[in-house]
Design a protein that fits this description.
Length: 467
């Protein structure tokens, strides 16, 4: 009789023979940038040339939905219905990638060619997200090949616009609710809390991007002739920002604070440490909300950041008082934050502190997309079941985080499709996603193939009770 260990062995053999790396190399080679016009045809090609044939080989039926929003990539839905009454799992991945930033790569062979360096495999999309959904697809195929059937009904969505805010995906799902209906959502994106610790995330923080602008006059003026007589917009903007966040990262806009952290969340995060590995950044333990651990600040609290700031010409400065200053800012927020009041509260706050002349402006289009915050509760039966399955395979309970620190379209699954949404990430925090030199850790990929094969095996095991 085929067994769970047989499926895991088949999945890890997919790695050991080089088949996983070959699959990922083909997929990385497709420059599916969703934030550039030139990348859009490649987004469609990723679905037609790579995803549809891979799912067809697994005896899934596939359908590609055109995006109803102009200049946004299509969405693929693959379905395999085995028996009425079995649980239906919806999986997810995104085939689009952030801009390649070709000239900035210092490792590997650039963004569109995978390259090994020790335990690292470089290439755009290796971590975010081509590598992660490739792991899940290969693990599912290993179960199918071992058992002869999955033992559950499966749906798998691959979209091509996540890096552009998943624009249009909601409209496609709303128009095809029955096609996307399921009992549970299980997918992979984002990093583990530590490279060697399997992690389960039950949601995602939301992101609200905006610009702060202090524009005082037309043109710059000589700092010798006018210094001391003309207000400096950069200094004013810096003081305005200082009313929003303390010198140690504490949010000072009262309406931006989330609800009080529950004891259940504190218990889940007790002992969780952020670790980017040998080349990752050092954690600043005194940054953020006082009294919270770094893990609590990232996975269970709100955070404010200035992502970019400019006044004058930093590349070629001159002795002139600049006419204006601009800062591109972001609030990451957890579920329970009053989203409708984020921008109005900021306006009231700046006015109350004497900065009525600092404008709150829309962000640049290149970084305007954002996601709402949403999560599945820690005591959800499916969340407990997934944790138990992972512990069964690894011999230790995974780290549980209420929501990943980043943002993704999790609300489409929790709020629109009304599913428990569970994320099992296969990357790590220092993977350089969204930056040059993006990479995955190959030992982590191998482990993840076995972990997911075990989970899919359990999902199809008729002897194991399901929620």
């Amino acid at each position: 009789m085929p067994s769970r260990s047989d499926a895991i062995a088949r999945a890890t053999d997919h790695f050991d023979t080089g088949a996983f790396e070959a699959d990922l190399a083909r997929r990385v080679a497709i420059p599916s940038e969703s934030q550039t016009k030139d990348g859009l045809p490649h987004c469609a090609r990723y679905l037609v040339d790579e995803m549809a044939p891979a799912f067809t080989a697994m005896r899934f039926e596939t359908q590609i939905f055109e995006n109803p929003i102009a200049d946004c990539g299509p969405i693929l839905l693959a379905q395999r219905h085995e028996v009425d009454g079995l649980p239906t799992m919806l999986g997810y991945g995104h085939g689009d990638v952030i801009r390649g930033l070709d000239e900035q790569w210092t490792k590997g062979a650039g963004p569109w060619t995978t390259a090994r360096d020790g335990d690292r495999l470089y290439g755009r999309g290796t971590a975010d997200n081509k590598g992660q959904h490739s792991i899940n697809m290969a693990a599912m195929d290993a179960v199918l090949q071992t058992r002869g059937a999955l033992g559950f009904n499966a749906k798998f969505m691959i979209e091509t616009g996540e890096e552009n805010g998943s624009t249009g995906v909601r409209e496609v799902i709303e128009a095809n609710m029955e096609a996307f209906a399921a009992d549970v959502f299980i997918a992979s994106d984002g990093p583990r809390v530590r490279a060697d610790q399997p992690t389960v995330s039950l949601g995602a923080r939301g992101a609200q991007n905006f610009d702060l602008v202090c524009s005082l006059r037309e043109g710059g003026h000589h700092s010798g002739n006018w210094g001391g007589a003309l207000a400096d917009p950069a200094a004013i903007l810096s003081h305005a920002i200082a009313t929003i966040v303390s010198p140690k990262g504490q949010i000072l806009v009262e309406e931006w604070l989330p609800p009080q952290m529950s004891n259940a969340v504190r218990d889940a995060l007790r002992g969780v440490e952020l670790d980017g590995g040998p080349n990752g950044p050092e954690v600043d333990r005194d940054w953020g909300e006082p009294g919270l651990t770094p893990a609590e600040n990232v996975y269970a609290w709100n955070s404010f950041a200035v992502l970019a700031m400019v006044s004058g010409n930093p590349q070629s400065p001159v002795n002139a008082i600049a006419p204006k200053a601009r800062a591109h800012c972001q609030l990451r927020y957890i579920s329970g934050t009053d989203v409708e009041d984020i921008m109005p509260a900021l306006r009231r706050h700046l006015d109350a502190h004497g900065f009525s002349h600092v404008e709150v402006a829309p962000p640049p289009q290149a970084n305007a997309a954002g996601f709402g915050a949403s999560r599945t509760e820690l005591d959800d039966p499916w969340a407990i079941w997934v944790r138990q399955s992972i512990a069964r395979g690894t011999g230790q309970p995974p780290a549980i985080i209420p929501q990943m620190g980043g943002s993704i379209c999790n609300d489409l699954f929790t709020d629109l499709l009304d599913l428990p949404a569970i994320w099992i990430p296969h990357s790590y925090t220092a993977c350089s996603q969204h930056a040059p030199d993006e990479h995955v850790l190959l030992p982590l990929c191998r482990e993840a193939l076995g972990l997911m094969a075990g989970l899919y095996w359990d999902l199809g095991d008729a002897e194991l009770p399901k929620p």
